[in-house]
């Protein structure tokens, strides 16, 4: 069934090319289209556009079908171009003429917008939960290994003493910043586009504020034109949020890959978490970390791909925007998997305990020597020159003590303060689970039976 089909049949090649990969990605969208349709059916009943009994039948039938579309085995039937066509066909099969009324006062444009934004909210909620879980682990590991020293690098050259507390705490705080960046993005996604129809509103007396409440959106996308303008833009914004998280994961992966090399041996993993070589029996390859880095790097480029898709489109809907699904949805899946695998790797990481005892790290303490001379009365520049001359002449013999007291240093990594940062951000990012929205819609006429 084609929702747009008229008497004249469309060329089969055109249909196949136009449908593209929608049947594949609409499986992920299906539960949210059911939820959006339930809210739309309730609104039609509440405004008198259909009889209440018809609205109740639509809601009940959709609620029974919800577990079916959530099942991983669910697929569109032969000849159905998208989930929207499938859902309407199903309702007509089950309810006859009542099923034909579900599309009253909406377009496939605002239907897919609503389903997409409900899906994006739910997927963002899951990503936030995974980021929070990885954050907690990083903080815990930072506290556990806070006194274990680590060489710090600039320009990939030995620089100054660092610690596992500083290093792991840094990535925990980076995740907080990624979530802070996401707060504005989620607020934009959390606006209801349902009722914008094809992008110019509807002559039916619909109640858009009601569907906003029913679907749990924080606000209404008031202008129907901007609702359509946001198609492609909201996907790009979500991709930017995913890219921020992916950047943190990519850099943490790169650190860990380097740190577990035979030359450094700062960290190690069990053989169960590494892979071997077909010809080199000594190898313990960091395949998981390398794939996290690779997948993360593809997500980092995702915003540019999505922005380029819609950059030069005029206002209104264009079929170009259909491709946003096949760009964004795999990116969401990649970030979720990478967060899960990174949590496993960080949890199983074994840090070395005596790294800085090696004489090759003597130069790490050059700054400490400069600072000691300054404390004895030399100007900083004179002290710097003296130590530089000692290093050049081969007479530099540093002590290995240090005295770091300020917050955010080896002696005071500030892990507790980093840990406290995430609470307010998570509160601002609270998103109602889609399952709760479904249960509310499912029980709507039970709760309001007397109305």
Shape: elongated
Radius of gyration: 28 Å
Structural class: mainly alpha
Mean pLDDT value:
91
By CATH, the superfamily of the largest domain comes out as: Fumarase/aspartase (Central domain)
Describe this structure in words.
With 451 residues, this protein is mainly alpha-helical. It folds into 3 domains: 12-104, Fumarase C, Chain B, domain 1, CATH 1.10.275.10; 120-199 and 221-357 and 417-432, Fumarase C, Chain A, domain 2 (Up-down Bundle), CATH 1.20.200; 358-413, no CATH class. 59% of the residues lie in helices and 5% in strands. It has 17 helices and 6 strands. The strands form 3 sheets. It has a two-stranded antiparallel ribbon with strand order 1-2. Strand 1 (149-154) and strand 2 form a beta hairpin. Helix 9 (233-259) runs antiparallel to helix 11 (302-310). The chain is elongated and about 95 Å long. The two termini are 36 Å apart.
Q: What is this structure's SSE topology?
A:
Blueprint: H1 12-19, H2 22-46, H3 52-70, H4 83-95, H5 108-144, E1 149-154, E2 157-163, H6 164-189, E3 191-192, H7 208-214, E4 219-220, H8 224-229, H9 233-259, E5 267-268, H10 287-300, H11 302-310, H12 324-347, E6 350-351, H13 366-375, H14 380-393, H15 415-428, H16 434-442, H17 444-447
Parallel strand pairs: 3-4
Antiparallel strand pairs: 1-2, 5-6
């Amino acid at each position: 069934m084609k929702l747009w089909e008229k008497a004249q049949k469309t060329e089969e090649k055109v249909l196949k090319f136009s449908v593209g990969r929608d049947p594949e990605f609409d499986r992920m969208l299906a539960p949210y289209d059911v939820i959006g349709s339930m809210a739309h059916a309730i609104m039609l009943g509440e405004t008198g556009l259909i009889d209440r009994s018809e609205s109740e039948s639509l809601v009940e039938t959709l609620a029974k079908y919800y577990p079916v579309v959530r099942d991983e085995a669910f697929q569109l039937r032969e000849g159905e171009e998208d989930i929207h066509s499938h859902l309407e066909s199903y309702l007509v099969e089950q309810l006859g003429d009542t099923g034909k009324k579900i599309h009253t006062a909406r377009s496939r444009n605002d239907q897919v917008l609503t389903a997409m934004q409900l899906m994006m909210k739910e997927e963002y909620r899951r990503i936030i939960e995974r980021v929070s879980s990885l954050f907690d682990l990083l903080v815990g590991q930072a506290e556990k290994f806070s006194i274990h020293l680590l060489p710090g690098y600039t320009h990939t050259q030995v620089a100054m003493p660092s610690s596992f507390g500083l290093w792991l705490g840094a990535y925990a705080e980076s995740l907080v910043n990624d979530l802070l960046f996401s707060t504005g993005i989620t607020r934009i996604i959390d606006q209801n586009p349902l009722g914008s129809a094809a992008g110019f509103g509807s002559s039916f007396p619909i109640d858009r504020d009601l569907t906003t409440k029913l679907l749990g959106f924080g606000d209404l996308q008031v202008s129907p034109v901007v609702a359509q303008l946001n198609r492609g833009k909201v996907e790009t914004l979500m991709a930017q949020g995913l890219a921020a998280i992916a950047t943190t994961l990519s850099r943490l992966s790169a650190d860990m890959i380097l740190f577990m090399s035979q030359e450094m041996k700062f960290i190690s993993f069990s053989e169960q978490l590494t892979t071997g070589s077909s010809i080199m029996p000594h190898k313990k390859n960091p395949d998981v970390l390398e794939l996290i880095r690779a997948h993360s790097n593809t997500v980092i480029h995702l915003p540019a791909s999505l922005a380029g898709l819609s950059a030069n489109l005029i206002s209104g809907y264009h079929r170009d925007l259909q491709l946003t699904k096949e760009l964004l949805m795999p990116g969401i899946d990649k970030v979720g998997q990478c967060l899960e695998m990174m949590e496993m790797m960080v949890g199983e990481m074994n840090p070395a305990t005596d790294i800085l005892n090696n004489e090759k790290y003597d130069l790490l303490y050059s700054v400490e020597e400069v600072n000691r001379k300054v404390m004895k009365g030399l100007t900083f520049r004179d002290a710097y020159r003296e130590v530089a001359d000692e290093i050049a002449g081969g007479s530099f013999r540093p002590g290995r003590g240090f005295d770091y007291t300020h917050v955010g240093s080896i002696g005071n990594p500030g892990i507790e303060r980093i840990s406290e940062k995430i609470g307010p951000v998570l509160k601002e990012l609270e998103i109602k689970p889609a399952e709760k929205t479904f249960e509310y819609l499912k029980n709507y006429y039970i709760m309001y039976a007397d109305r």
